[in-house]
Design goal:
This protein has 285 residues and is of the alpha+beta class. The chain is built from 7 helices and 20 strands. Bound molecules: manganese (II) ion. Manganese (II) ion binds next to loops.
Length: 285
């Protein structure tokens, strides 16, 4: 199942180049009172909602996908977890490029661990990226994103993928510099999620997906999740041994080689096997 969030916060079932408005299924969500439960409640209730979504699709209004405003597929992520330098080819390029490294030692992921991005940075593909520091280098990083579906606390590597509800494409936009990653990568619009979520049952093993990114049609990044240094199941197990992962948390698994700068006026095209493609425009803040 492929679900998007579009236009006026409608929920859409993506079928080829059509989107069916299945927002009516959300009426099955429980009525919440303050304090609201943690995590994204659509994702937390996705198994319960699935038959209701399929039922709503039977009488749904259809829209052509082209022309819709696509928002991030998860409306209320509790956190964005991210893996630094998780492909050897990106480690190698970061070591030799002072524009990436900025005088810092590239510490291996096994040593430095994971980092968090502010959820206020999350946008959908239609919103685009606003360059916040035009005097600096602002890079694209395409990443496979796992959307956590069930609370994960000290889960084993073997069971970790049971806690993934869906996957999507992510752009971990980055302003280069000496500051902490969590600051440089948390700028508003610097976490693009889209174009929709694809439920995990349609993906199976997430370690055989080609990632491709172009800027204005020029090839920049092309690699395969088979080359992840720390695999998705290991990332989730590892993180869950430090903190609880909750429904709707977005887990960015790292970018391969080929990162490079974008400037206002550029168009990024990001695509991952089985997850679709998204075009993201870059503009000045
Ligand atoms: Mn990244």
């Amino acid at each position: 199942m492929k679900l998007c969030r579009f236009n006026d916060n409608q929920i859409g079932l993506v079928e080829g180049d059509q989107v069916l408005d299945v927002s009516a299924a959300l009426e099955a969500l429980p009525a919440y009172k303050y304090p609201l439960p943690r995590g994204d409640q659509l994702i937390a209730n996705l198994d319960m909602l699935r038959p209701k979504i399929l039922e709503a699709a039977k009488s749904a209004n259809r829209f052509p996908l082209a022309g819709l405003t696509l928002h991030a597929p998860v409306a209320n992520p509790g956190k964005v977890v991210a893996a630094p330098v998780n492909y050897q080819a990106h480690y190698d390029e970061a070591e030799v490029d002072p524009g990436i490294r900025f005088g810092k030692e590239i510490v291996k992921i096994q040593t430095i661990g994971l980092f968090l991005k502010a959820t206020s940075s999350v946008r959908g593909p239609s919103y685009g990226v606003e360059i916040n520091h035009p005097d600096r280098r602002n890079d694209h990083e395409i990443e496979l994103v796992a959307i956590i579906g069930k609370p994960a606390r000290r889960v084993s590597v073997e069971n970790a993928l049971d806690h993934v509800a869906a996957y999507c494409i992510g752009l971990d936009m980055t302003v280069r510099g000496v500051e902490e990653r969590s600051m440089r990568k948390s700028i508003d619009t610097y976490t693009v999620m889209g174009p929709w979520l694809t439920t995990a049952d349609e993906i199976g093993d997430p370690h055989n997906l080609q990632l491709t990114l172009t800027v204005n049609g020029e090839p920049r990044q092309s690699n395969n999740t088979a080359n992840l240094l720390i695999k998705v199941r290991e990332l989730i197990s590892w993180a869950s041994n430090w903190y609880t992962l909750q429904p709707g948390d977005l887990f960015m698994t790292g970018t391969p080689d080929g990162v490079g700068p974008v400037v206002p006026g550029d168009t990024i095209d990001a695509r991952i096997d089985k997850l679709g493609s998204m075009q993201v425009k870059v503009r000045a803040a």
